[in-house]
């Protein structure tokens, strides 16, 4: 059975240096043919805005990694859906439970 | 259809980090999807169910206790317990015994038990999936 990976990213890339290695890991998994999804929560959603200079996020998106942004985290930070990178979709937090019930490897960062 | 068990391990204390809010939101979403939930609360999270938590007013902003509506994690746990009961699913909650001793937070609300890391092993072993939310 193919195991999917679902990462919950709560750290913000501009102040948490470790996010680079975390995204590198996700990218490596995607390059090896694994299905990888990432949900941005809390301050991590700041990376989901249009025009944010984020080579890491761009690389993930170019390798078919699905990236979502928690709707409430966006709302709390007054980031509207129109301000989002068009490749990043707003999502409810129940997407985490769906992944767990699907048997994905769900990992919190 | 068989109800799936999900285990969550959490170590953040109440009132300090946004992770705590996200954690409770995830638990609520799990109940909405009909999962049985098992929680192992350790380190600071052992205080989430502390029954002596007290709401308070905010004199700086001239708000009394009711107006301030200070959220207490023990009440959130109780609300989740009630929701689980209404939905007919199980919510088990174990606090790490050493962690509550260290913090003097032994008095937990009903339904939250004292245990040990062996409970996390047991929970994870019998669960369909497990999420560990670590503090950094």
Summed up:
Chain A is of the alpha/beta class and 109 residues long. Chain A contains 4 helices and 5 strands; from the N terminus they run βαβαβαβαβ. In chain A, α1 runs parallel beside α2.
Fold and architecture overview:
With 109 residues, chain A is of the alpha/beta class. Chain A has a single domain, classed as DsrEFH-like (Hypothetical Protein Ychn, Chain: A, 3-Layer(aba) Sandwich), CATH 3.40.1260.10. Helices cover 32% and strands 21% of the residues of chain A. A five-stranded parallel β-sheet of chain A has the order 4-3-2-1-5, with helices on both faces. In chain A, strand 3, helix 3 and strand 4 form a beta-alpha-beta unit. The longest helix of chain A is centred in the first third of the chain and has 13 residues, at 19-31. With 136 residues, chain B is of the alpha/beta class. Chain B has one domain: 3-Layer(aba) Sandwich (Hypothetical Protein Ychn, Chain: A). Chain B contains five helices and five strands, in the order E-H-E-H-H-E-H-E-H-E. In chain B, helix 4 links the parallel strand 3 (91-96) and strand 4. In chain B, 39% of the residues are buried. The interface between A and B is medium-sized, with 20 and 19 residues.
């Amino acid at each position: 059975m193919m195991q999917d990976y679902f990462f919950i990213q709560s750290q913000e890339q501009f102040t948490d240096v470790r996010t680079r290695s975390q995204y590198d890991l996700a990218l490596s998994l995607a390059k090896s043919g694994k299905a990888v999804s990432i949900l941005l929560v809390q301050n991590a959603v700041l990376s989901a805005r249009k025009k944010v200079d984020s080579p890491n996020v761009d690389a993930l998106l170019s390798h078919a990694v699905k990236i979502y942004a928690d709707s409430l985290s966006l709302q709390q930070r007054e980031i509207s859906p129109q301000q989002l990178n068009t490749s990043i979709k707003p999502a409810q937090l129940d997407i985490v439970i769906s992944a767990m019930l699907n048997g994905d490897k769900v990992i919190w960062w | 259809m068989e109800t799936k068990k999900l285990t969550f391990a959490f170590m953040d204390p109440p009132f300090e980090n946004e992770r705590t809010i996200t954690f409770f939101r995830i638990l609520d979403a799990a109940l909405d999807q009909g999962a049985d939930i098992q929680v192992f609360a350790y380190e600071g999270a052992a205080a989430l169910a502390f029954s002596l938590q007290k709401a308070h007013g905010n004199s700086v902003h001239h708000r009394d206790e009711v107006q301030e509506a200070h959220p207490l994690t023990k009440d959130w746990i109780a609300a989740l317990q009630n929701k689980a009961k209404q939905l007919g699913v199980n919510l088990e909650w174990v606090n790490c015994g050493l962690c509550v001793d260290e913090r003097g937070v032994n008095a937990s609300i009903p339904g939250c038990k004292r245990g040990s890391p062996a409970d996390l092993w047991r929970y994870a072993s019998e669960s369909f999936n497990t999420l560990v939310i670590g503090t950094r």
